[in-house]
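pls design
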């Protein structure tokens, strides 16, 4: 299973979009400082995930969320309550 995910920093108003084939391990890596791009905003909490059977579909979705602000904005509106908690 391949997953795209959105993390929210617990201490800062920062979000991170990523892709992984092992979500539990990847979240642990983000929170332990093993990821260069996210270590300064740790700890993180998972606020959204989408699972895909096909790796290419997951990577395409991750890229669309990162590259197209409107796609990301629409998703943030859909998960507004998750982002606030």
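designed seq:
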């Amino acid at each position: 299973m391949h997953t795209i995910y959105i993390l929210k920093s617990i201490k800062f108003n920062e979000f991170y979009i990523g892709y992984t084939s092992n979500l539990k391990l990847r979240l642990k890596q983000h929170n332990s400082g093993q990821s260069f791009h996210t270590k300064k905003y740790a700890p993180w909490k998972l606020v959204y995930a989408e699972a895909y059977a096909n790796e290419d579909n997951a990577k395409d979705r991750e890229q669309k969320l990162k590259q197209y602000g409107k796609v990301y904005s629409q998703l943030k509106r859909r998960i507004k309550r998750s982002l606030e908690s």
